[in-house]
Here is the input.
Amino acid sequence: MKTRAAVATAAGKPLEVMTVDLQGPKAGEVLVEIKATGICHTDEFTRSGADPEGLFPVIFGHEGAGIVVEAGAGVTSLKKGDHVIPLYTPECRQCKSCLSRKTNLCTAIRNTQGQGVMPDGTSRFSIGKEKIHHYMGCSTFSNFTVVPEIALAKIREDAPFDKVCYIGCGVTTGIGAVINTAKVEPGANVVVFGLGGIGLNVIQGARLAGANRIIGVDLNPRRRALAEKFGMTDFVNPAEVEGELVPYLVALTDGGADYSFECVGNVDLMRQALECCHRGWGVSVIIGVAAAGQEIRTRPFQLVTGRVWMGTAFGGARGRTDVPKIVDWYMDGRINIDDLITHTMPLDDINEAFDLMHAGESIRSVVVY
Ligand code: NAD
Ligand code: AHE
Ligand code: ZN
Here is the structure.
């Protein structure tokens, strides 16, 4: 079949909206009509060329929601008409990682997904004879896409696609980092570096967890009002702090944060996020994705004296199990997604979403098909 898609032909170039060829689903695969997709900073990270795993040409997008059009041979858990959210972290429930119960990082299709192809080693997307890569196993910047069955969460049918698509990455990553990864307890003091599409969900998660002080750190003063609406108690603009940021944050938190979260992808901030944690027990969670060649640094003494450095992908969520529950939280009014979706646009205008992100204007832009 043919489908409209935004194709990234080379690193650093704007996306090109065009008609591409899409092969139907093979065994264990599902054809999905994408109804809406968010644009995450990770799409921009790879588009820019900063991602060491970046492959081109490719169809980006990993924050979508849609409807099953056709289930391939052997698919048992989904049927035509089901509403779904594609998962860049699948959940096969059979691999060593899934069975360990220690991680959400299912390994069933990790290798081929990283190579931009389906589990059988081939791509479903092409233009004539030229192959186009899949991205993170999702490629939601295409009106129709093919996704493995184990990488689709079935969701309730009354949930609006243009809102719950954000659960496909940003919402789950931010809230999950607090609840699943850090396991923030009531009364804890939390510092969040970066108040964009991920950081604001960390704030919302910290409020759900019953945190006491929730301190937001961002260079963009326009983030303040929305962050306060989501539960931030104190705003710190590093550009306005006299002297060093770390001692300032340590003083603000009576000796250091119980938990900190880096939601930018900047290795210098990752160090500050660790070092503003409380001696003896502070936990710092890396969420941001840093460019190729970057490395984190700190004095080992920071860890010797009890601080813990950890990271999280997709908020530690097991997608097929957890995503339908997060959709319920949204539908029950327990979490706010609407206020974070600041812009919507048709696929033809998708490059505007990247411009808005760079200008610090948007939290989440959503393409509605
Ligand atoms: P975003 O562009 O919406 O937000 C980034 C925020 O960081 C902005 O508010 C910006 O003003 C702020 N910022 C930039 N430089 C700063 C600095 N030096 N000090 C303080 N604040 C600064 O991005 P996003 O979509 O929220 O994504 C954030 C990061 O999380 C990205 O690196 C993205 O790739 C990563 N991410 C990781 C996962 C995961 O599973 N680990 C999932 C989604 C996104
Ligand atoms: N390819 C990058 C790593 C990118 C990365 O860390 N991706 C996260 C999801 S970000 C979502 O917005 C992830 O889940 N990684 C786990 C995995 O298995 O890819 C690089 O730097 O090489
Ligand atoms: Zn993402």
Summary: The longest strand covers residues 29-38.
